[in-house]
Input
Amino acid sequence: MKKAFKTVLTAALSVGLAASLAACSSSNNSNEANNSGNGAPEVKTIKMLGHSTWFMQGMDAIIPVAKQNGFNLEIEKVPEGDDGANLMKTRFATNDKPDILFYQNGINNTHGFGNPGDVFVDQDGQPWMDNFSKDSWKNMMDTIDDGKWYGAPYGGADMGVVIYNKRVFDELGLSVPVNMDEFWSVAEALKAANIAPIYFSGQDAWTTQLPVLISSASKQGAELIPLINENKAKLSEWTDQQVGMDFIKEALSRGVTNENILSSSYDNAQKALSSGEAGMYFMATWVMNEMVSKYPDGVADLGSFVIPFKGNGEDMAAIWAPKSMYVVKGDNQEAAQEFVNWFLQPEIQDIFFANQGGIPAIQGVTKTSLTQAELDAKNYMDKGQAIGNVPFPFLHGAQSNLPSYTQELFVEGGKSPEEVIAAMQRDMEVDAKSKGDANFQ
Amino acid sequence: MLKKQFYSYWLLVPGLLIFAIFFIFPSLMSFYFAFTNLNGAFEVTRFVGFENFITLYENPDNILALKNTFLYAFITTLFKIVLGLALALLANQAIKSKIVLRSVLFFPVILSTVAVAIAFRALYHPSTGLINVFLKAIGLESLAKSWLTDPSIVMYAISFVEIWKWTGFTMVLFLAALQSVPNDIIEAAEIDGATPWQRFRFITMPMLIPVLNTNVILSVIGGLKVFDIVYALTGGGPGNASSVINTAVFKAYAAGRNGEATAANLVLFVIVLAAVLLLNKFINRENRG
Output
């Protein structure tokens, strides 16, 4: 009796399983029939992978338009900073790759995704390049490994500046400083008014490197980095880089920062800046996209200026080239490349930039929605007073641990600026030796 | 008869095969990769000898990670054993609420490590965290610290979370052993005039040695191999103040230096193996003695 019951149950489950599989199959078949039957473009699914805050209002506006044009975008979002980057690298290492990777520009062998030539599709000669000036973005968006262009621009260029609350400045009768003496005077005035003069979001280590990256954006870097890559110069000779680190130490010693820096997050900083609890924040203009959606009321109060480390108008704003989309070699690379070419048409970029800030890298884009802080920053670029934040690419991982090292500058008993630079030099030499670079053996 | 014997061994083959492919083989391969320049794309271009180990040793951040790992393993093991035993003795009492008590004490063990870390990050916040708010409210402001951002106390703060989460586990193991101690021996000792401490010292404790051995070894292994609670709470920060061996491994892996990461793992393997063998020998010698 028991045996008979088991037999009947097994048979019933098998029939049920087979029936459900057949139903799914017929459902899929009917979808395909619908797609091909009514004249609509065949829908291609494109799998994308990138940091969560990179997909905001612009991409939100693109997704439905993409679907109408036959692209079903499946976007997988990972956390910001190293956490998310490590997740992405793990996916590539285990061959669980997306169709399009969204990552920093100028990806090369040191980024941990493998040899770009083996993993990504070369973008040279693609239709979107007709509206792109390679000369303007040379050494920022191409890869140093072989000089090829694997990344297509995603979003706009950003500028590393000091974002400040203009309303607070006006109320206190303060003006944008043009040298460091004036800067410290402004900071003291803000402190006297119980406003955090300079906000540091130390909990998120990647944000602490901004003053260093901004000070590094100079012609000295552009001249020295090629020599450093060949071990003909040391990182310690790049004195402009240390300026940003010394600045952090001086701000801490003067007490012109927020409290509990290491417990303050990137989001805390945005809230404090927009509400007027903080006067100034070292960041790139990409922060404005988030603030437009999270703290819209405070956006109109914000402006930006270049920190006057050198003074006399010699300082340059740091440019972050647009993020990049990388078409991953694989079964779906044709569809992914088709999407990239479609997305980078000026009329489609108009839709993106009408909904999200950023300075377009594609020529012919006529609609933008830049906030005042971004417009202030763009002025520096228009006047030629801006340079790439890493003015020449590093061949080896000199800056791979910069976030945690700059975070240590805020820690009592942590590394000094000289020790940070020595640690970066060591990291670069270790990386170079592991790759068998003859200049470092 | 012989066929029946072989049949039972054949049943082991699939499981052993999976174990060999996913555990034994990769472990053996790591002994090779630790001496190469294995990169982020899992390519080996040359044999580097002891270069990876020298690189690990020459980096002062790695030495700090090693010290933090030993400190963490020692503190968490000590407190988990002592508190686990104390709680087991309490939960073994004939009290009305002992079942509820056991469940409550074991509850943290089943919580997700990441969820616990997120909760404690909020609790530990220097200005808005409940711990400091409570301390300030009762007039103990001097005790309100920057728990996760002060390099001098961050490892202790992380250790506390680990102890809070896992003491219930050691308690359960001790409790199971306590319940196997024969009552008639305890009663006989009581009749003979033995004090509670003497009963515990000469009857109960010797019978707990095997489970003590298990608990100590599990705690030490867990402490030396720690990663998740540290990474979720501080990411190894501030700076590198709370980095441990496995966060250093993770950093090397993230930089694409998989050979170096594997070498660090090999170092950890040797440390854990040495610790387990020494502890096992020491505790069992006490047991035999």
The longest strand of chain A covers residues 44-51. The radius of gyration of chain A is 25 Å. DSSP finds 19 helices and eleven strands in chain A. The mean pLDDT of chain A is 89.
